[in-house]
Amino acid sequence: MQSGMQRLGWAALAWVVATTGLMACSSGEHSPDNPASRDGGAVPDTGASPVDAAPGDIQAPVSCKNDCCDRSGTPIPDFSRCTPSAAPVTGYCHRGECRTSGYYDFLTGLSSEVPVRAISWLPNGQAVAATNLGSPGATILGSAAVWKTGEIHASYILPRPGRGVAMHPNGTLLAVGASPLTMYNHPATEPVQTFREALGPVAFSPDGKWMAAASANSSNHGILLYNAATLVQEGQMHQNVEGAGLNLLAWSPDSSLLLAGFGPHQPDSTAGELTLWRMDGTSAGPSWACPVRAAGFSPDGKKVIGACGSSVKIWNASTGEEEKSVSWAGTQVLSVAYSPDGARVAVGTSKGLLIYAEKNFSADAEPVSAFPNSEAGVIAYSPDGSYLIMSKGDRPELIRWRL
Hints:
Elements: H1 4-19, H2 35-38, E1 68-70, E2 75-76, E3 89-94, E4 97-99, E5 104-107, E6 116-121, E7 127-133, E8 142-148, E9 151-158, E10 165-167, E11 173-176, E12 181-185, E13 191-195, E14 198-204, E15 210-215, E16 222-227, E17 233-238, E18 244-251, E19 257-264, E20 273-278, E21 283-289, E22 292-297, E23 303-308, E24 311-316, E25 322-327, E26 333-338, E27 344-349, E28 352-357, E29 369-372, E30 376-381, E31 387-392, E32 398-402
Antiparallel strand pairs: 1-2, 1-3, 3-4, 5-32, 6-7, 7-8, 8-9, 10-11, 11-12, 12-13, 14-15, 15-16, 16-17, 18-19, 19-20, 20-21, 22-23, 23-24, 24-25, 26-27, 27-28, 28-29, 30-31, 31-32
C-alpha cells in the first residue's frame, strides 16, 4: 500500500505534468491571463513527461528544466540558486523560454540570516510585514521589514529575536513581537511605545479595536489584551499548556473571538493546544489538542484550521467537532491557510507548498497548484487572494507567488 505522502507526491506530479508548469516554471495555462485555469477549467496537455522521481517526492516536469531567469534572460537551472544574492530574478521559465513577466519574486531586506517567523499583510494589500529570529551570538538578534509593491519600504533592527508581527488595519501602527513588544508608526523606524510585559506573537483585530499579545511574565502565562486606540491593557486570558508555548494568535473575521495556539517546546513533542477566547477573558468553549505550528479561521468564521504535526485538521468553531483530518506520512505540515474566498486550502510542508480545492480537500486529492522543492515554513494570502507569500526554507527571505 502507498503511504499518504506517496499518494500526495504522485498526485502533485501528475497535476504538474498535466499543466506543464508550476513553481517558477509556470506555464501560461496557469497564469492569471487564463481564467479557465484559475477557475478549475481544463487546460491543454503540452506533452510533458514525468521525471524519474522517488515516490513521495514533489517534482517539476522534465519539459521545464529552468526554474527562473536572470535579467539578461538567461535561464537558471537550479532553483536553490534562485536567490537575490545569486541572481536578480525577473522572469520565469515557460516551455523552455524565459519570460519577462514574473510569476514570482523575492522580498528581501531582513537582516538576520535565519528563517522568517511571521508574516502580516495590510488589509488593502499594499504592504506586507515579516519578522525573523536572530541566531545565538549574532550581532543582530532579530529584524523586521515592510514591503510595498515588492520594494523594501522600511526595515527594523530588533534588540531581541522577533517572534511576531502585525500591521494595524489603518496601515500606520506596526507591532513587532520581540522582547519587549515594540510599536512603530510605520514607516518611521523609531519606536513610539514599548510593552515590557508583552512579547510575540501579536495580532490586531480586523475591526482595529484590539491588540492581543503574549505575556512576557513567566509566572503569569497567558494573553494580554490592549485597546488599540489607547494602547492600554484592558484584559488578560490566563492559560498555561505543559511542554508548550504560545506561538500564534488569530482573530475571527468579526473580531469577537481570539484563537490561541500553543506549540511544543521540543520538535519531537506532541504537546500543544488550540483554544478559543472571548473578549471578556472567558473561554469560548472549544479547545483542541494539537502540536500546532499554524492555525486560523475560515473566512466565514465557522471553521478553525490547524497544522498539527503531519496533519491538517479542520474543526467546527462553534461545536468543536472535528470535521476533517488530512495526513501525509513522513512529512511535517508547517503552515496552513484558507484563501480569502474560502475556496482553497494552502498547505505548507517540509517538501513544498500545495494548494487544494476546499470542497474535496484530502490526501488523495490532486492539488490545484503545487510549488515544490522549498520548505514552506510560513504562508499568508494577500487580502484579495491574488498573491500568496511564503517563507523559503531556512532563508531570511520571502517568495511572493502570483496565483
